[in-house]
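Methods — Computational structure assignment.
A single polypeptide chain was analysed. Its primary sequence is given first, followed by the predicted tertiary structure written as structure tokens.
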Amino acid sequence: MTIEPTPGDDRPREKLSRLGAASLTESELLAIVLQTGAGGRSALQLAKQLLAAYGGLRQLLQSDTRALQCYPGIGRARSALIKAVQELSRRYVTEKLPVGRAIGSPADTKAYFSARLRDFQHEVFCCLYLDNRHRVLRFEELFRGTIDGTSVYPREVVKQALKYNAAAIIVAHNHPSGVAEPSQADERITRRLSAALALVDIRLLDHIVVGDGQTTSLAGRGVI
């Protein structure tokens, strides 16, 4: 079967060259990743069908590799490309806070934690350890839980902060429900952590709750 050529104005690569990547739709960007079509479909047609089948770009990037390989026209090589795009995107965002760099703004910190935590299907509690100039010493996933909660132990947080010689820390956890509204339990553990860390002269700068595309700062709420 012959694959019909895509009209010049609709060719994603040419459009990117003329107008820039921001002008392309998600299906056009995905078509560039796929490079060629399959089964009588152009790369753009295949991209549109793939996004429709999975319900959007995020769901596609999060999809199981084996299931993705079985989609008609994808296979092992293209599924590997799609998963590589997911990992590159995650690393691009999280690289904003490499070890040794000072935190630039609260917005950068929220974006960092969101990229790290929002796609987990269970709760993860993590710590960002900082020196006295608020430069990043280390990021660590400290506790993991279930879909609706996790246990946080202030003693372990203090222990790890002392281990890395931190002067301050920022903690964060995700809500798999997608709602970033802090619970009363979140507020209680924040106050307990702040008090425990203060005993060893370490500041808790913030506790960030990560939802689906949104974050909430407990420092911004006045809890700390």
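Note: Residues 1-9 have pLDDT under 50 and may be disordered.
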